[in-house]
Amino acid sequence: MGESSINFAKASSAALQDQQLRGNFRRAMDGLMSKRAVQFADTAEWNGVRALGASVRLRALSKLPELLEKLEANCTRNGIQVHWAATTDEANAIVLSIMQRVNAKLVVKGKSMVSEEMHLNAFLEKRGIECLESDLGEYIVQLDEAMPSHIIMPAIHMNTKQIAHLFKQKIKEAEYTEDVAQLTDLARRVLRKKFATADVGVSGVNMAVAETGTLCLVENEGNGRMSTTVPPVHIAVMGLEKVVEKLEDVPPVISLLTRSATAQPITTYVNMISSPRKEGEKDGPDEIHLVILDNGRSGIYADEELRNTLRCIRCGACMNHCPVYTKVGGHAYQAPYPGPIGSILMPQVEGLEKRGELPHACTMCNACVEICPVKIPIVEIMGRLRSEAVHPGDAVRGAGSHASKAEAMVWKGWSMTYASPLAYQFATALLAKLGNAAPTSLPLLKEWTNVRTKPRFANRTLHALAREKGIPDV
Amino acid sequence: MSHDGTTSRPDIERPESVYFFGTCLVDLFYPDAGMAGMELLKAQGVRVVFPQGQSCCGQPAYNSGYREEALKVARAQLDYFPGDWPIVVPSGSCAGMMSKHWPDLFKGEPDEARARQVASRVWELTQFLVQVLKVTFEDQGPPVKITWHASCHAQREMGVTDEPKALLRQLANVELVELQREKECCGFGGTFAVRHPEISAAMVGDKVADIENTGAKAVVSGDCGCLMNISGALEAGQKPVRGVHIAQFLKERTHG
Q: Does A450 reach chain B within 8 Å, measured CB to CB?
């Protein structure tokens, strides 16, 4: 087993001990699931918009290289400067060089998961540039010196009381209060001052439209609009899969995204960013930069099955519905993208050596597949990655790194027995006679019997009973 | 309806004979549930054939990443269902493996067409009882309060939704109290239960609490993996609730 497998087990174990955390997640996820269900109560409408959304994403992926070139051309024509980054190191370096050129000291950030993937805050802070998260959830997590535990609701692991204590401790002018409106107002006051003085705004991108060179950004707090319009320089970072072909592709994807993510028919703000400030315009940045990040995505793209991972529109609904995620929370995954999508994306981006255990953080219940708005076959990919982890190959980085001779032998022995009727019936008859004598100290049985009684082998197998009762054989 | 909203499957005519695929878990741990399943079918006037050469659908190896080994075991099953009859399975999970995953597993293999043909004849037991045999039961048991746990693969791979509960509701003396989170996974997940025992324990813990809240005397389910997990946890926690397979429960209520 790889290094991270130990960490996931350890981190999830710690999370499971934390009753407060478990309660926070259970309540929050139950609420999100039922609110989402109301949004998609009309099955025919859900099937229709879902098929449309999936087809938009599939079409975009089917001509990804062409669309990216078109996006670059149209953005450039609009005055948006496009930069390509093969790795997160390259992306960070690009962002840094822009900031150094304008002598930036303070950056305000709208919410961006790609910037989490880049560990951008830590990178810039080491170089003396202050980064302030302006999305309320991200701001809370940043004050707490933690990572987001959910891609849409970064501070969902905390309750009001915990946030109240955090604010009192970390914000100078804070009076202790558990009043949500007062807490929000306090954060707003802190952030407003920063927006006015920030040198650069950094944001993510929900979708980039190839035919028009437009960057779409949905948000609820107005911080996205502030980050992208108030500072003189706006830098948007996006994964290369976020492109769609046409403007008309945007509405169905936004509708699926916001209803799946937060059960809103639409977010409070939908930003369509198409150029820097033009002459005579009163607001908007002087410069817009778009950093397009690969970071393993083109490798994923090369494999027809794995490519489906790139359909994702980052709504987070798979997390809300995952019975594993809702028990252990996002931090246990120790990854920018937790939950089901993270469990298939992270091993492909960072390699199976490091992330090979994540595809096993799943009971294959298919709850995520049932609600994924763009029909990603998450569980099939999970199974594929389990196979890649134990078989050498070149489709995924680190393939074969979790191979174990002992495990391979067990499955080989299993398949030889189960593929031979004679061997199978001999083995099962033996288990029916002697299986119950197995001590609970045996590996696997030990884990099982921690909270359960030992499974009891029946005296006679179904094969034997069927013969006795004269049920005809073939 | 299955998870992508397509209707479960087209109706077929009532067959004269069916095959019964018992599954390896039923074979070793719940043979009474398997026998009950066959008797329920026979009671409807259908001839039941139990091929003695059968073993397992291959799912344990498939889900563990050992596809070649899964293929070997799946392939060994193909010979034993030669007639063109439906194959009835008392498990949504094994039925899902055969029906939905065999086509992928056999992709590009010389026997792909044959595997697809066998896969297309697979039915989950309750789905078959309701949709094809259109059974009606007369309850002969005493009043009892029960609850129902929906297996993940029955609902999301086989498109089984209301069929089992419709069968249980036919029983006059049975009060069915639904779980608050009926569709949530119980935490079994095959090797998941031993690979991540603490998370699995938390999941089955939530399931047990949900079951206890209903005040039911029995939790009925259609998959022996879930049952082994849930009953094991109920027993270990000394809860006075019995876990029982739906075939066995229906048989007890209707044939005494």
A: yes
In A41-60, the residues whose Cβ lies within 8 Å of chain B are 43, 46-47, 50
Domain ranges for chain B: 17-131, 136-255
- Judged against a pLDDT cut of 50, whether residue B6 lies above it is answered with no
**Averaged over B38-43, what is the pLDDT?**
97
B52-82 pLDDT tens trace: 999 999 999 999 999 999 999 999 999 999 9
Residue B5 pLDDT > 90, yes or no? no
Q: Which residues contact A99 (CB under 8 A, 6 or more apart)?
A: A107, A124, A129, A199, A200
Rounded CA-CA distance B71/B78 in Å is 11
- Check CB contact of A452 with chain B, cutoff 8 Å: yes
Q: Which residues, 6+ apart, have CB-to-CB distance to A159 below 8 Å?
A: A20, A24
First to last CA, chain A: 44
- B64-93 in b/e form (b: 16+ CB < 10 A) is bbbbebbbbbbbbbbebbeeebbbbbbbbb
From the CA atom positions of chain A, what is the Rg in Å? 25
- CATH 3.40.50.10420 residue ranges for chain A: 40-295
Q: List the single residue in B32, B156, B199 with the smallest CB-CB distance to A327.
A: B199
Note whether A395 contacts B: Cβ–Cβ < 8 A: no
- In B, minimum Cα distance to A364 occurs at B189
Q: Which of B87, B149, B195 to mutate to test the interface with A (most CBs of A within 10 A)?
A: B195
pLDDT of residue B2: 42
Contacts of B27 in chain A (CB under 8 A): 428, 461-463
Contact A418 B56 (CB under 8 A): yes
- Averages of pLDDT over runs of 10 residues in chain A (474 residues) are 62 93 92 97 97 98 98 98 98 98 97 96 97 97 96 96 96 94 95 94 98 98 96 98 98 98 97 96 95 97 97 98 96 96 97 95 98 98 98 94 96 98 96 94 92 96 97 95
Q: CATH topology for A40-295?
A: Rossmann fold (3.40.50)
What CATH architecture does domain A308-390 belong to? Orthogonal Bundle (1.10)
pTM greater than 0.90: yes
On the question of pLDDT at B237 being above 90, the answer is yes
Rounded CA-CA distance A241/A243 in Å is 6
- The strand pair at B218-221 and B242-245 is best described as parallel
In chain B, the residue whose alpha carbon lies closest to the alpha carbon of A54 is: B4
Cα of A120 to nearest chain B Cα, Å: 32
Output the CATH code of domain B136-255: 3.40.50.11810
Instruction: Return residue ranges of chain A for CATH 1.10.1060.10.
Output: 308-390
Q: What is the DSSP letter of A277?
A: P
Enclosing H/E stretch for A233: strand A233-239
